[in-house]
Design goal:
two-stranded antiparallel ribbon, homodimer, mainly alpha, DNA-binding
Chain lengths: 143, 143
DNA sequence: ATTGTTGTAACATATTATATTACATCAATT
DNA sequence: AATTGATGTAATATAATATGTTACAACAAT
């Protein structure tokens, strides 16, 4: 089981938009060359980020920019933007209701797994784009 | 993105094995009727649980039982048994090495995501089969 | 008008999860 | 030794999802 790479790709996009905002027009083609995926993937992802209110995209002329400070955008925001808001875990739909395990496992195990999911989201909320940009700047400085 | 239902199914199997150990022979057909999946799915999952040392299966005659106390089996054990031991998140393989974001994002973001994964596993370790059996028994008693 | 861009539809491909059938093998029992 | 009910596993089918790609209409600046 793996998460799709939508979260990493979306994060990469946002970081590039901010990192290069004064040097380049951050078009889907430009971003695609850094991430190394098809520009259409970038446009679709930008569409999700736009719908989530994280970026604005200049129609026609092109280029994207953040709508708020990198310190105010967390991985949680990005995750919510690009992943379906569905159950992280899922259960066999129709366990046997005549079995005491079958008719109770969904709620009993579900409660525990929901806690796991909440912790994961809390971890995501702790990381901002500004944190990541700082780490990247540190790497750059060390090169 | 969703986890497959292997973790819930495997947990369901283990709970049934323990809950019904004194009443029924817990064959793949019996377990399949509680979980409501094909018996072959049960056998494959039992194979994974057996490989992980959590159960032993009686060849020929049939039936499975736990190899240790339910208090000593955690969701982490079950998760490790049935999910590939791979990266939880995955990255675009070949980001542009000429871009400072592209060449550093894997390690910078990867570090953060690895922490998220470690927290998830730690959460799994906190839940034992005995906990779940107790919750189910409480539900049964309240019915 | 031309240009470069976005937004989106349509389609292709690969991977994974799950379901199902079939059958060889096994161990206990008769 | 034959029967029985079970496991282990291969082969295959189906569906869902992720990703890649082409194509093109709409758009905004020049």
């Amino acid at each position: 089981m793996q998460f799709s790479f939508r979260l990493p790709v979306a994060t990469h996009i946002l970081l590039c938009i901010e990192r290069f905002k004064d040097e380049y027009k951050t078009t889907s083609t430009f971003l695609a060359s850094s991430v190394n995926v098809n520009p259409v993937i970038i446009r679709k992802t930008l569409g999700q980020l736009k719908a989530a209110g994280l970026v604005e995209v200049a129609a026609g002329v092109g280029g994207a920019k953040l709508t708020k400070s990198p310190a105010d955008i967390t991985l949680w925001d990005v995750f919510q933007a690009v992943e379906e808001d569905e159950e992280l875990f899922h259960f066999q739909e129709n366990p046997n209701p005549k079995c005491p395990v079958g008719r109770n496992i969904h709620v009993v195990l579900g409660d525990r797994l929901e806690e796991v999911r909440q912790h994961m989201l809390a971890d995501f909320q702790k990381v901002t784009l500004a944190d990541l940009l700082a780490s990247i700047a540190a790497k750059e400085a060390a090169e």
